[in-house]
Write a structure and sequence with these properties.
34% of the residues lie in helices and 28% in strands. It has 397 residues and is of the alpha/beta class. Strands 1, 2, 6, 7, 8, 9, 15 and 16 form an 8-stranded mixed beta sheet that branches. β15 (280-281) and β16 (284-286) form a beta hairpin. The longest helix is centred in the last third of the chain and has 29 residues, at 327-355. It starts with 5 loop residues before the first strand and ends with a helix. It binds flavin-adenine dinucleotide. Flavin-adenine dinucleotide (FAD) binds at residues 12-18, 34-37, 45-50, 127-128, 155-157, 161, 183, 185, 225, 266, 268, 270, 288-290, 294, 299-302, 305. Flavin-adenine dinucleotide (FAD) is lined by residues 12-18, 34-37, 45-50, 127-128, 155-157, 161, 183, 185, 225, 266, 268, 270, 288-290, 294, 299-302, 305.
C-alpha cells in the first residue's frame, strides 16, 4: 500500500465482523482492512463459544448467514453438546446445544485469510487516529499515512473510535446503567470438568449481575470466566477477586477448578445495552460490537457481528457501485437480526431484576423448562415465560 492510497472501502477492525465485511466487499471493489493488532486475533478477548451452523440458523432465522461460518475444524479447540445452568442454590438444568469452542486467534486469522483471498489488502499493526469525510489518518509500525475511502466501516469493537468520529450516538441508553458488562476469564489446565458441557453459574454472591462460565477446551483444559455488572458489585471487590472467589469457593465449581493451573488472563467489555440508535451516517457504517450487535442475555457477539459484517460489506459494495444508498445497511440488519437483539435486551432487563435476589433467581430457574431456558439465553421470549417474568417483576416492585 502506498501512502495516500485510495480504496473504495476501508474497514477498521479485523475481528469477526470486519474480516467478514472485507470478505464480501472485496468481491466487488477495492478494500483495505486495518487492525491495530500486530498479530490478528491476539491478544484473545473471547471465550470462543459458537453454536454450530444449524443452531445459528435457529438463532437468527431471518439472517442470510455468511459462508465464513463454514470454517475448518482447526479453528476450534473442541466441540460441546450441552449447556448446563446452575442456579444460586445449586439446582441444575441442562439442554442440548451443539457448539464449537473456537481458538479465537486461529479463527480470526482464518477470517482475515478469507478476506485477503477475496482480494482485500490487510494492514496490521496500524491504528486509525483520525477520520474526516473520506480521509483516514493511520499510524503504526509502517509509519503514518493518510488514505482515502469512499465508504468506511467501523468494526472496531465496543469502544469504537469510528463511531465517535462519525458522531454516532453511544451504545445503550443513558437510562440503562446495566448496559455494559465487564468480562474476565482465565484459561486453565488440570481442571476436572465435563468436556461435553458448557456450564453457566448464577448467584449474586459469586457473579453479581451476570453469570460465570466453564467452557471446555478439550481434555482437562477450559476457559473459566464471568461477565458481571459493576453496579451490582460489592465496593472494594475487583472483578478478578470475584473470579478467584468463584474458582476457590463456589460450592459446585470449586471442586472442579481449585487444583487447576492458570495459563492466561483475558478481560474485555461486553456491550449488553442493545444496538446504537443509529449505525450509519454520511459514508460511515458501524457493525458488530462497535454497533452493539450482541445477544444481551448471554453476551455472545460472534454470530451477530458476522451477520452484520456481511451486510455492511455487501451494502458498501452496493454504494460504491451505485446499487443502493448507505441507509440500506440499517434496514437490512434490523430485518435480519434486529428482533433478536431487541428481545435479548428486553429479557436481560427482566432478568436483571431477578438477579438482585438469589431466591427469586432460583425460583425463576426452577419454573422455566430447559427448552424455554434455551430460548431465553438465545434472546427469544416465549409467551409463557414473558407472563411469568412480568409477574415476578411486579412482585419485586
Ligand atoms: C472475555 C470475553 C469473552 C467473550 N466470549 C464470547 C463467546 O464465548 N462467544 C461469543 O459469541 N462472544 C463472546 N464475547 C463477545 C465477542 O468477543 C465479541 O462480540 C466479538 O469479538 C465481536 O466481534 P467484532 O469483530 O465486532 O469486534 P472485535 O472482535 O472486538 O474486533 C475489533 C477489532 O478492531 C480493532 N481495532 C479497534 N480499534 C482500532 C483502531 N482505532 N484502529 C485499528 N484497529 C482497531 C481491534 O484490534 C480488534 O481486532 C466475549 C467477549 C469478552 C470480552
Amino acid at each position: 500500500m502506498n501512502p495516500d492510497s485510495h480504496y473504495d472501502v476501508a474497514i477498521i477492525g479485523a475481528g469477526p465482523c470486519g474480516a467478514t465485511a472485507a470478505r464480501y466487499a472485496a468481491e466487488e471493489c477495492s478494500v483495505l482492512l486495518i487492525d491495530r493488532r500486530k498479530t490478528i486475533g491476539s491478544p484473545v478477548q473471547c471465550a470462543g463459544f459458537l453454536p454450530k451452523y444449524d443452531e445459528l440458523e435457529e438463532l437468527m432465522p431471518d439472517a442470510d448467514l455468511p459462508d465464513t461460518f463454514r470454517y475448518p475444524a482447526s479453528c476450534a479447540y473442541t466441540e460441546t453438546r450441552y449447556q448446563r445452568f446452575v442456579a444460586p442454590t445449586g439446582d441444575i438444568k441442562e439442554f442440548d446445544v451443539a457448539a464449537d469452542v473456537l481458538n479465537r486467534k486461529r479463527f480470526d486469522q482464518y477470517l482475515a485469510e478469507r478476506a485477503v483471498r477475496a482480494g482485500a489488502d490487510l494492514r496490521i499493526g496500524t491504528r486509525v487516529t483520525a477520520i474526516d469525510g473520506r480521509s483516514i489518518e493511520i499510524a503504526g509500525m509502517w509509519g503514518s499515512h493518510t488514505i482515502s475511502a469512499d465508504v468506511i466501516i467501523g468494526a472496531d469493537g465496543p469502544g469504537s473510535f469510528v463511531a465517535k468520529a462519525a458522531g454516532l450516538p453511544g451504545i445503550g441508553a443513558d437510562d440503562d446503567p446495566m448496559g455494559l458488562a465487564h468480562a474476565v476469564a482465565y484459561d486453565m489446565t488440570g481442571v476436572e470438568i465435563d468436556d461435553q458441557a458448557v456450564e453457566m453459574y448464577f448467584g449474586r454472591n459469586f457473579v453479581p449481575g451476570g453469570y460465570a462460565w466453564i467452557i471446555p477446551h478439550g481434555g482437562t483444559s477450559a476457559n473459566v470466566g464471568m461477565g458481571i455488572r459493576k453496579a451490582m458489585c460489592e465496593p472494594g471487590v475487583s472483578f478478578r477477586d470475584y473470579l478467584h472467589r468463584f474458582i476457590e469457593e463456589h460450592p459446585i465449581a470449586a471442586d472442579k477448578l481449585r487444583g487447576g493451573e492458570i495459563t492466561s488472563f483475558i478481560a474485555g467489555i461486553v456491550p449488553v445495552g442493545g444496538a446504537r440508535p443509529k449505525t450509519c451516517a454520511g459514508n460511515v457504517m458501524i457493525a458488530g460490537d462497535a454497533a452493539g450487535h450482541l445477544i444481551a442475555t448471554n453476551g455472545g457477539g460472534i454470530p451477530t457481528a458476522m451477520v452484520a459484517g456481511k451486510i455492511a460489506g455487501e451494502v458498501a459494495a452496493g454504494v460504491v457501485n451505485g446499487r443502493c444508498d448507505i441507509e440500506e445497511y440499517e434496514s437490512r440488519w434490523q430485518r435480519e437480526i434486529g428482533m433478536q437483539i431487541r428481545t435479548s435486551v428486553y429479557v436481560r432487563k427482566l432478568m436483571d431484576g431477578m438477579m438482585r435476589s438469589d431466591s427469586m433467581m432460583t425460583a425463576v430457574m426452577n419454573m422455566i423448562s430447559p427448552a424455554h431456558m434455551k430460548a431465553l439465553q438465545r434472546g427469544q421470549l416465549p409467551d409463557a415465560v414473558k407472563r411469568l417474568l412480568q409477574g415476578m417483576q411486579r412482585r419485586l416492585g
